[in-house]
Amino acid sequence: MNYPQIPKSWNIESKPHKFCPGCGHGIALKALGMVIDELGIQDKTVFGVDIGCSLLAWDFFNVDTIQTHHGRTTPVITGIKRANPELITIAYMGDGGGYAIGSQHLVNAAARNEKITVILINNTNYGMTGGQMAPTTLPGQKTETTPYGRDVGETGYPTLGPEMVAAIAREGAYVARGTVANLRQLKGFIKKAIENQMAGNGFSFVEVLSGCPTNWRTNAKETWDFIENTMTQYFKVGELKVPGKGE
Amino acid sequence: MANKPITGEQRVFMTGNEVIAYAAVMAEADIMYGYPITPQNEIMHYWTRLAPKYGKKFLQTEDELSAGFTTIGGVLAGRKAFTATAGPGNTLMQEPMSMAEMMRIPTLLIVQQRGGPSTATVIYSQQEVTMTTYGGNGEGFRIVYSTASHQDLYDYVIKGFNTAWKYRFPTFILGDGYQAKMREACVMYDPAERGIELVKPTPYMGAPGTPGVDRKPSHMRNTYNTEEELYEVVMNLAKAYEAIIPEVVEFEELNAFEADTVIIAHGVVSRAAKGAVKELLAEGEKKVGYFRPITLRPLAVNELREIAQRAKKLIIAESSYGQLLKQIKEAIYGTDVEIHTILKPGVGITQEEIVAKYHEVK
Lengths: 247, 362
Known about the structure:
With 247 residues, chain A is of the alpha/beta class. Chain A has nine helices and nine strands. The mean pLDDT of chain A is 96.
């Protein structure tokens, strides 16, 4: 029997990692670590993390990592890739960094078909700052700034990120939504997203449905139930755009 | 592919923005990331015309935040990347520049000042002094050259790349709308032929080898968890910055250390000030001098104090409501010198006005 291994590209010195118990970041980063190992790209990967919970991954891997400002990971990674196209460049951010403060960078990187990979963790709230509403907060969901539940009449509907990116990005882009509840599938999406960059096809984007038990105030069972059964009703898991498979 | 657009020395009659584009090519810049804003647009226009001929790149970003952060990315990848902006764009650029300050990322930002605040005019001012010298969150560990002519633009763009990469502090060329748009003569040259050695960039990300196997990974952060941790980081920045001040500080003067009345100005206004002092000296006024800080950050504090201790009067002339004045007052704190001013936010200052002011306060 094969037991789960710690990815070789992980930095053992920074483990155990600093995310809250039950947080999905560790699982997403494990999937990414496995992909880096399988593709043998540890020597040429550059990893960029945003402000927010993702910044805790600044020393997560034994790969060159830059921790940037809130919402600005996409342009930093774009700048690196444009300057040295040989590098495999990955921007890692949360729903705030990608869909709120950094949304214009995401939109324009997708429109330009930047040959970078963006991995965005969707946990329906702002984790690091204490659980405020995010663009992805579900209708009726309670957060620190929607204490009576998100009123879509006041604040609109949750952002459908991959759907938006798929609509903007053109031929050569890869867009998918995975979940930490299905590691094997998620790893497959991340692998395809990075392979797409390596092939020089175009923009690659993976949204990852993830849990935030601390701010959701959920126990283990309720956390997984929310990820697997509630989030997936609104955020459909699967591939939205695959190069060569048409629009 | 041609190697360099300039060989030997060439006397040209060009706009300042065009001069900057040539200087960037001759400084061996690799890539420009930019976003349009008046009056710096032609830097991009000329760069995009020159770039493909010399194997260089350009990206027009979605805004100045992106231009600043992609520039940082280009530098991290080991390339000489730069950007340019003005006015409200400079406001946005302060965010990436504060990151560059914290992480010691060499960045070169060319600012062609327009009138402010807000959108204001697209023409001219010296109102971006405070923002360019101290604009980010943090302490403002940066180097700001205030240029006065097209020759300065050419010289200091080449020098600015070297300063940024040598000392690894954000470096700014602070021009203005007049310098951007007007034509005047200057001499362009190959820096190598003048013995100027260009500092080579090094990659901060993606250097050869496998991180964690045959080299340490580059783990760069600007977030710190405790007060003490940040204190140590910032104090180290301060120490490094203070150590380079004597090497970096630049100024120009005429009779300033002998005069009773010293006229102080920077940028294009310094040309009027220098002209006024020359005129007054020619008229037989012996006790008048001129001082121009070239680096506005760091400022030539020692020289300014010496002048202030010796002279009786200072006349500070600037196209802002006292942004240079504020810095000079701080520099000469405790001296008894009388301070007079010509403060004209967003408006040019002539030699005649300065001569008249001299006679008025004499």
